[in-house]
Amino acid sequence: MSIRSPLARLLAPLPTHLRDDAARRYARQEAVLLDRLGSLYGQRPDFLPWLGDLMESVGRLYAARAPELRRQDAQREARPDWFASQSMLGYSAYVQRFGANLQGVAARIAHLRELGVTYLHLLPFLRARAGESDGGFAVASFEEVDPALGSNADLLALTAQLRAAGISLCSDLILNHVADDHAWALDAKAGDPLLRDFFHTYPDRVQPDRYEQTVGQVFPQAAPGNFTFVPELQRWVWTTFYPYQWDLNYANPAVFAAMAGAMLGLANKGIEVFRLDSTAFLWKREGTDCMNQPEAHSLLQALRAIAAIVAPGVLLKAEAIVPTPKLPAYFGSDAAPECHIAYHSSLMAAGWGALAEESTDLLQQVIAATPPLPPAASWLSYVRCHDDIGWNVLLNEAGADGPARLARIARFFAGTPGSGSYARGAAFQSSSADKAHGSNGMAASLAGLESATTVQEQEYALRRLLLLHGLALSFGALPVLYMGDELGMTNDYSYTQRADRAMDSRWLQRPAFDDSLLAWRHDGVSASGRLYLGLRQLIDARGRLPALAAAAPRSVLPADTPAVLALLRGDAFLNLSNFSGASQRFTLPAGEWRNSLDGSVLAGTVGLQPWHMLWLEREQEQKREPA
Ligand code: OTU
What we know:
Layout: H1 6-11, H2 16-41, H3 47-63, H4 67-78, E1 90-93, H5 95-99, H6 102-106, H7 109-115, E2 119-122, H8 152-164, E3 168-174, E4 177-179, H9 183-189, H10 193-196, E5 201-202, H11 206-212, E6 227-230, E7 235-238, E8 245-247, H12 253-268, E9 273-277, H13 294-310, E10 315-318, E11 341-343, H14 345-357, H15 361-369, E12 378-382, E13 389-390, H16 402-414, E14 426-428, E15 438-440, H17 443-446, H18 455-474, E16 478-482, H19 515-519, H20 527-543, E17 554-557, E18 564-569, E19 573-578, E20 584-587, E21 593-595, E22 601-602, E23 605-608, E24 613-618
Parallel strand pairs: 1-2, 1-16, 2-3, 3-9, 9-10, 10-11, 11-12, 12-16
Antiparallel strand pairs: 4-8, 5-7, 6-7, 13-15, 14-15, 17-18, 18-19, 19-24, 20-23, 21-22, 21-24
Helix pairs in contact: 2-3, 2-13, 3-12, 12-13, 14-15, 14-18, 18-20
């Protein structure tokens, strides 16, 4: 019996009118697909039949893709950098907090459009583990919307409405683990050996103890250790995050096939971007920290190739919260592209670090360590998200006394009243006072809006918020606003009253959307109104400045003081930011510079008030008519 080629298996389920496109796309992806999957699984005797089965199920998902999604794929295939322009703007929210459920989110589309949003990341909305679920990051089914948030029909309706509004829906694809009540875990517990092989399990502590010598901890306080004893299995299961989040075993090709199918199933429901959660953790290797392993990149490149065959309009986004030098690998290479977008978490953390230190030293180092983007790719910039600000991604930049320096920054943001800090936040999961882990809090609270008691303190807090957002908007990235930050929403302390949340201070920055603040957004006098107006002005200016597109060149001009960041885009746009509470001066490069926001023209040495930011565009020299 001859084994039919993977291409023949891919085409078999397709109607004739789709076969040419499928064959053309397959031809472009074949080398990467075979090489990467071959390197991971090729030594298995059943590799070729497995690959054939995978391609046949990929073909079936291709056949099921709706015509309007296929049309969108074709348009984007013709313009592969469609998402990297200066008019692309993101927004991230929990469904329950933003709109109660998916229908409620649809009712917020007008707000998103008013802001200029073109990309909406909804935090996990698939059926979550019963009981505690890490905010939905413990997924019980990749096929079903969580009943508390709506139905699959609601999801289809929402993606269609968003598409019509020019907004791409981004969903988490939690690749690293599933909930302990996902069918795979339940079947494993029931004794099915095939499903037990979906996970990393060990009969005793011998191997876990060996791994623990080199593997770090994500939740050292709330979930210490990386292994959990499961009585039903009488074995230890690898659980990087909470004990109820079981890491998937990607050494098993069935796991890869199942997750590729899950991704395409969601893409067919209209998801346009996948936030690949915890991408750094997918492959385990003894003697290492089990992060950023070459096999994890091979897995992602194979996943990208499959997406490029079935849904080339769909984007992959790496959520790899890793030090700056480890980030570029998540874009892959020309020959084997990986993710389209990657979170720049060290940039985000360094921005907050600059506020705490009133010095842009960390920020300048992170920017210098950030390489130019490959074609059709983008960083993701942000000020806050649903997670902590993790400080350890800055250890490379923080120098010899790095841990102590980052711990000082974390203490600043914990900002207990009386400590002299304007910030109101919480330290997250730190294991000792001289080491930093993360900081939590809404941007407004961390920037001083919550503690402000005078008009000037409030003004300064608003300037700090615009400073950080201005950096995210002008850096050269897809900026993603975090729900509530556009209105200066502050911390939600109610989580401490709930037993299932009290140990996880990330809930501090997961408040419900405040419609009373929304009502003030156009008043121009309330803190929310001023912040909203300021942000809208920056967003509008960005939209008309091609120099702010993701791939446009970026450099930093020298300043007399580390308090000032002079970020140049191209040679005609300058973001001048004073990260300190003292007034500073900066001498502009020769020529006249027009303020992007108020149109005034500046030249020579300019003054920058505390936490002040200027967006400046170089005036074009008037062409003199020959006499
Ligand atoms: C991601 O987080 C999610 O964003 C978190 O909300 C989840 O709890 C977690 O995965 C598990 O699904 O691992 O790659 O330090 O920054 O857990 C980075 C806390 C992650 C988060 C970290 C992060």
